[in-house]
Amino acid sequence: MEKPNETNGHVAGYPEDTVCHVEDDVPKVSKAKSGCCQSFAQFLKRNIIVILTVSGVVVGVGLGSAIRKMKLTKAQMTYFAFPGEMLLRMLKMIILPLVVCSLISGAASLDTRSLGKLGGIAIAYFLVTTLLASGLALALGSIIQPGDGASALNSNALGIQATVTTNKETVDSFLDLARNLMPSNLVAAAFRSYATEYTTIIKNTTKGIVTEKISFGTDIEGMNILGLVLFAIVLGVALKKLGPEGEELIRFFNAFNEATMVLVSWIMCSATLPTMIKYIEENNGVDKRISRFILPIGATVNMDGAAIFQCMAAVFIAQMNGVSLNAGQMFTILVTATASSVGAAGIPAGGVLTIAIILEAIGLPTNDLSLILAVDWIVDRTTTVVNVEGDALGAGILHHLSQKENTRKQHNLSDVYVEAVPNLRSEEETSPLVMHRNQDSTPTDVSLPESKESVL
């Protein structure tokens, strides 16, 4: 029996909507908590790379400051840096298959005509942006004058030993660049590159002792990435030209490229090139054929940030030594920085070697390069950001131009008309694939012009 003060489970005397249902509130609270946990988990999943990177920077700075106070020996520092050395060695291990397979698969997936057009636009974009970056650095250096008043700085007084010495001629730098584009041995190009070195010969003549500098070519340690890039592009085009016979090799390199991407994700999830390819394709919607063809080339030849750094460093050293650069010297800096950034080695402090070439080209001493070496570790991070942004922007521009060209071609194919000709046959006798326009009830024995539209 129901109690007299209750009616159908509700308290008598109170409206139904004012009764609190405690049992219904508990699931709502638990659902809200689970929703917050899911949102937080999704946030961590989306930003795990950024969080780990920032945490690694903070921990690294803290450990570095603490270890610096301990005054470790060189042997102890080598042991402490061993994990980082292993990471760098693994990354260098996959550079060759990553660049070569990506370029071969990208070049083979593009049409030959579009490949030539896109390649020309890409090279023009890379050269123009590098020239603009170098010119911007020269203009800012002349306006801001970072080296003015810094003549008191002295490498010896600061206790920094100059570790970069070079006397390479500008002409030899360009010739070495051309020679490395055409390696005589592809196997050797995977771990060695061509470079010009000099030796001094002392001759005893009737006029006295004469010193002569003679240049000679030699192979130095370091991958000849330019030669491998050119070979990969040519091989991809050749496989595309073979047609069905080259499909097997194209599929092989495509699978090799995907496997290399997986290796990179295992070794280092934030490596520049594979991560850039992934996010440009997934987030920005760039065609895979364009991204996998353009980005490896851009990562090799498009060094806008390096060009800015090199030109600014040259202006800084010139101003620090009290040298006023003329128009000819500025033009030399502009051209040398642009050409040298194309073949710059992708190694730590590799840009400092290019600065040495620029200083020699304009006749400035290279002793002050030790000052640049002291800050290269932090400047290298900022130049990498500029380089990556330039490559990504170039891929986006080429994707937009490619889409525009494809749309124009489709529009032209859909509106192909044949010239009007006399209608000498009746509609029943003409091809069923031809559509007649502007026809009326006029007898068929009268010749009428017809406009024929192709089914294409």
UniProtKB/TrEMBL annotation:
Cellular localization per UniProt: Membrane
Alphabetic keyword roster: Glycoprotein, Membrane, Symport, Transmembrane, Transmembrane helix, Transport
PROSITE patterns per the UniProt record, alphabetical: NA_DICARBOXYL_SYMP_1, NA_DICARBOXYL_SYMP_2
Principal place of residence: membrane
MF GO annotations: L-alanine transmembrane transporter activity; L-aspartate transmembrane transporter activity; L-serine transmembrane transporter activity; L-threonine transmembrane transporter activity; symporter activity
The UniProt record lists the keyword Glycosyltransferase: no
Topology class, membrane: Multi-pass membrane protein
One GO BP annotation of this record: L-glutamate transmembrane transport
Segments passing through the bilayer: 48-67, 87-110, 122-144, 222-239, 259-281, 293-318, 330-359
GO cellular component, one term: plasma membrane
Chain intervals for the UniProt region annotation (Disordered): 428-456
Family listed: Belongs to the dicarboxylate/amino acid:cation symporter (DAACS) (TC 2.A.23) family.
Protein name as it appears in the record: Amino acid transporter
